Amino acid sequence: MKVLQILPSLHGGGVEVGTLEIAKALAEAGHQSYVLSAGGPMVEQLQAEGSSHIEWNLGKKSPLTFLQLWKLRRFFAEQQFDIVHVRSRMPAWVAYLAWRGMPSQQRPRFISTMHGLHSVSAYSEVMCKGERVIAVSKTVAEYIAANYPGTDMHKVTVINRGVDAAEYPPAYQPPADWLQQWQREFPQLQGKRLICLPGRLTRLKGHGILLDLMAEVAQQQPDWHALIVGGEDPKRRAYAEQLYQRVEQLGLQQRVSFTGARRDMREIYSQAAVVLSLSTKPESFGRTTTEALTMGVPVVGFDHGGVGEQLRALFPAGAVSCYDQTELRERIAAVLTQGLKPQANNRYLKSEMIKQTLALYQELLQQ
After folding, report:
1. Is residue 343 part of a domain?
2. How do strand 109-114 and strand 83-86 relate by DSSP bridges?
3. What is the pTM of this model?
4. Angle, nearest 10°, between helix axes 207-216 and 325-338?
5. Is residue 170 part of a domain?
6. Which of 48, 145, 243, 304 is 20 to 30 Å apart from 71, CA to CA?
7. CA angle in degrees (0–180, nearest 5) for 165-166-167
8. Of 90, 101, 100, whose CA–CA distance to 123 is shortest?
9. In terms of domains, do 156 and 14 share one?
10. Claim to verify: residue 104 and residue 215 sit in the same structural domain
11. Tell me: the pLDDT tens digits for 267-290?
């Protein structure tokens, strides 16, 4: 197969990671793998893993971007791709219009992936226009059915995002030198049960809910320590400052630690007694929760979106009614006192995601 994946850029993020995972799998299986984007730091990895990169910016949200569709149509015709796979709305519109204008017998097959719970609009609906539409979770498939009733749901396939079980193994123990460095960096965590909330410092992640919880249990649970793992969002510095001030106002300086952005999430999960997901809006999937659950670390989170889906499948004891502070506290306490552990993850695996995606490509080509 000759496959082209299209997305805005390769600067990092869940969409980009998934694109590189499929690209690598295609190349390893002997297929021709191409990715079209405006570029970014992940291009080097993409090419090292056997794919070709086409630098072309189709992600700019401007009417002028549509002027490129005739050039893109010629490119499709010249290259004779078997599959064109779009993963983001603006590039998807340009690619879809270019593709639709080709003679039907000369077109590549056209696949779209809806990665997020986008705002409902005609602009977002392009992600439902593929000959096959991949939904990254059952939550996304239900969202399509509810909000885009014109979509033929027979062409929608749920292919869960997944993590590499070898990268996030159960009962993982970090190396001794990492532990020593961790203890030097965060001596206040020694002997504490870490309540870990991963995610960039944005209001969506529900940090305020965790701070209120820690203030509430300050007397009853002296060994609970909140660990907020994530960097500041440059566009939301004021929100980060509000969080730091709130910690002081509540007198939680000895009960809450901020790590900043980290690249050693696997090691940090291994130190956590429980990982939280407190997003105030449902997420389409929730990669951090999958990583923790795969390692056998308990996750307690609001029962909505992709996170609720994962918890119901792998750790029902961690599912909390949305925004219920009392139930959240009780669930965390139950998990810690009873030593509850999630089931083995055999559902949200990168290997399954790759296998199902390549099988979908082959199935569409055979029709």
Report:
1. no
2. parallel
3. 0.92
4. 70
5. no
6. 48
7. 90
8. 90
9. yes
10. no
11. 999 999 999 999 999 999 988 999
The reply to whether 167 falls in a domain is no
Is residue 113 located within the same domain as residue 181?
no
- 143 CB-near residues (< 8 Å, 6+ apart): 114, 117, 135, 284
Question: Do 84 and 117 share a domain, yes or no?
Answer: yes
Residue 317's closest CA among 295, 285, 341?
341
| DSSP reduced 3-state for 301 | strand
User: Could you tell me how many residues make up the chain?
Assistant: 367
Q: Are 273 and 193 contacting, i.e. CB atoms less than 8 angstroms apart?
A: yes
- Burial call 238-267: b when 16+ CB within 10 Å, e when fewer: ebbeebeebbeebebeebbbbbeeeeebbb
What pLDDT digit, counting tens, does each position of 145-187 carry?
Answer: 999 999 999 999 999 999 999 999 998 999 999 999 999 999 9
Q: Which CATH number belongs to the domain containing residue 130 in this structure?
A: 3.40.50.2000
| Chain position carrying tokens 């007694």 | 273
Burial class (CB in 10 A: 0-12, 13-18, 19+), 198: buried
Tell me how many domains the chain contains.
Answer: 2
Domain range holding 94?
2-162+349-365
78/222 same-domain check: no
